[in-house]
Amino acid sequence: MPTRLIMSHQPWGRDFHRLGAYRAEYGYHGVEWAMEGMRLPIAHARLQRMLAQMRAVAPHASYHAPYSDIEIAHRDPAIGQASLDALKRYVDAIAPMGAHHLNCHVGSFGLGPDERSWDRMVDNVREIAAYGEARGLIVTIENLQEGLSSEPDLFCRLVTETSIRVTFDIGHANGSDWVCSGRGTAAEFIRRLGGCIVAAHVYEIEAGDAHHAPRDLSRIGAALRELSRVGCDWWVLELPRLDLLEATRNVVDRFVAEQEGPQRLLGHGRVG
Q1: Where does 4-264 sit in CATH, by number?
Q2: How open is the CA angle 52-137-4, to the nearest 5 degrees?
Q3: At CA 15, angle to CA 10 and CA 20, rounded to 5?
Q4: What is the pLDDT of residues 40-79, one digit of tens each?
Q5: Torsion angle (degrees, nearest 10) of CA 227, 62, 164, 146
Q6: pLDDT in tens, 126-167
């Protein structure tokens, strides 16, 4: 299946008009909305207006749920339940949009062993996945840079026990201790997850809480080839600034052209 390149909305923030124009001009298939900075309004009319603006920017979209104050793996049952309820509200709002998926974090910011509960995490991940499926929305979790979801053994166990789908984050994998200590590579992590992966976050590495663009394919090429092999075709260029987005796009365009032929080179520069 041809690769679909998706841009994060972050370089344009809430400037829906300029974001939509840029997406169309540069040939992106869709947009991923980072809801950490765009919370859903409570007022119904305001919520519908915001969703309509998003739909006008891109008919094809994925959504990244907020995570700084939502944690379904937390040991405290009140926090876990409140977090689960919050994610369900995102599912309810996003499912009618025909979204590709809703992505969630589990164990964010290296949530410590004394703060998390494996059993509660499994139960809540299983529940949010089923809640989304019942409404026609795929819910995913992603591997993180640190904590339990950065370790392939634990992350793959969680995926197996819950039947959740995965957004694979190349930059998180490359910045993790598992990769940095030489125990494995992002491509090997992807191989273990296989067909569970339905989307990817494509950039070189997360370091110092920042996403860094690749200069070439040396650190992401093997992972991109593995994503193609396992059938993941939804590639989100998850960069917060326009210069980083365009640098990453240049590298990814070269990869796509080499792997899929020049006809699949999606708008290197302006699409005309």
Answers
A1: 3.20.20.150
A2: 75
A3: 85
A4: 999 999 999 999 999 999 999 999 999 999 999 999 999 9
A5: 70
A6: 999 999 999 999 999 999 999 999 999 999 999 999 999 999
Residue-by-residue DSSP string for 92-129: HHHGGGT-S-EEE-SSGGG--TTTB-HHHHHHHHHHHH
Q: Give dist(CA 156, CA 85) in Å, integer.
A: 25
Task: Report the C-alpha gap between 155 and 152 in whole angstroms.
Answer: 5
Residue type, 108: S
pLDDT exceeds cutoff 60 at 207: yes
**How many CB atoms lie under 10 A from the CB of residue 94?**
25
- What pTM did the predictor assign? 0.95
Give 122: exposed, middle or buried? Use CB within 10 Å, 0-12, 13-18, 19+: middle
Residue with more model confidence, 262 or 257? 257
Pull the structure tokens for residue 3.
Answer: 């690769």
Q: What are the extents of the domains in the chain?
A: 4-264
